[in-house]
Amino acid sequence: MRRLTVDKVEPGMVLGKSIYTDNYDILMNRGTPLTIDYITRLKARGHTTVYVTDAETADIIITNPLSDKIRAMTTKDIQKMYRTTQLNLAKAENDTSSALIKSINSPKFKKSFQQNPVLTHLCENANRFLEDIMNQNVLSGLNATKSFDNYTYEHSVDATVISVLIAKRLSFGQDKLKQLVTGEFLHDIGQLCIDEKIANKPGKLAPEEYEKIKLHTVYGYEILKDVDKIEGVAAHISFQHHERQDGMGYPRGLRGSNKIDMGSLTGELRFTTSDKLVILAEIAAIADFYDACISDRPYRTGLSPDLVYELVKTGGGWQFNNELVDCFLSVVPKYPVGYGIKVKCGEYKDFIGVVATLNTSKLSAPKILLLNDNQKNKIKPIEVDLYSYRGLIDIECIN
């Protein structure tokens, strides 16, 4: 199996992962032979990439961190939670941010949010989500191939997957993991309070527009705090996931210690501007950044995973908690399985192929399968173990 942009999919290739409708019913089952009509429909629905199986890559196995059932069920619940919350927000006074926050904290809004059966279902299913992922230690490939319309919900699931893998490496207990999951599921719910024209603006944001964007963290916290089903720490994931270690993040410019501090994971938290970051939010900051950067959006193409991997790595110490970055690098590969690659230097310079398997002791040196020579001609596949070349062959991800 391998990941391809829809533009490179050829009729006769077989779908490697199921595709879902906007409401998360199955649109195309895994194993479906792709026709010109199917490929056209995928493009029309905003899918930029898919996973396919062909004769050359049939032996490449991409381990899904979540079963299709749990992924679809969770994403659908997050979608429903956003939509029902949006309906209630539409009735709120929102001419100013303070008026909107006042409406969010009104007994009527809090009651409707608290008693929403979808929220109950989502929180109950956090345990199923954890059970499904607990046998995974490394993110083998990328997570979902997102569609533009459902980006927010799919991003929430994928960021949660990455966060859980980091937390597992730290030996978090079940209660802390569940706090992390419930907080991550809804970490961007404050985006509902932001004008879509600003949130999806293709060009550079004006200073006043950026100030409005930053408020989504505050709105998210106000929506989630005081909700019995969501503990105080979990609500702070929404509040703090854009804070940075050097104090240059938002909304409060909190500073981090660049150390793993498990001491603040209590259920009830009320912070002041002088308080520190909580570790759950520091984990979420890394996961949110990585998944957002690699994802395609209507206004830009996602960055390649190897580039974003390096951005996280170099961001340790000033953007992200340095010790948590080390954990991230131990569970997220620089070159995901199934992703297209090009050889930058060495014996096979300019050959094109795909990542075949990971070396779990050195995630940055996988085995690759070369499929095209330096003139882009198809060749008999050549398997190359980068670990055995000790850095003499360098590769880069390509779409």
Strand percentage, roughly?
Answer: 5-15%
- The level-1 CATH class of the largest domain: Mainly Alpha
What sequence of helices (H) and strands (E) makes up the elements?
EEEEHEHHHHHHHHHHHHHHEEEEHE
So, CATH architecture of the largest domain?
Answer: Orthogonal Bundle
Distance between the termini: 15 Å
The count of domains is 3
According to CATH, the homologous superfamily of the largest domain is Hypothetical protein af1432
With strands numbered from the N-terminus, the spatial order across the biggest sheet is 9-8-7-6-10
Question: How many strand elements?
Answer: 10
Shape: globular
User: How much helix, percentage-wise, in residues?
Assistant: 40-55%
Short synopsis of the structure:
The chain is of the alpha+beta class and 399 residues long.
Would you kindly provide a written description of the structure presented here, covering whatever features stand out?
The chain has helices spanning 36-44, 68-89, 97-104, 107-114, 117-124, 126-133, 151-169, 174-185, 196-199, 207-214, 216-224, 232-240, 279-294, 305-315, 322-331, 386-389, and strands at 2-5, 14-15, 19-20, 26-28, 49-53, 340-345, 352-357, 367-372, 378-385, 394-397. The chain is of the alpha+beta class and 399 residues long. The chain folds into three domains: 2-53, Molybdopterin biosynthesis moea protein, domain 2 (Alpha-Beta Complex), CATH 3.90.105.10; 68-331, Hypothetical protein af1432; 340-397. The strands form three sheets. The chain has a five-stranded antiparallel β-sheet with strand order 9-8-7-6-10. The chain has a three-stranded antiparallel β-sheet with strand order 1-5-2, with no helix packed on it. Strands 3-4 form a two-stranded antiparallel ribbon. α7 packs across α13 and α8 (174-185) packs across α12 (232-240).
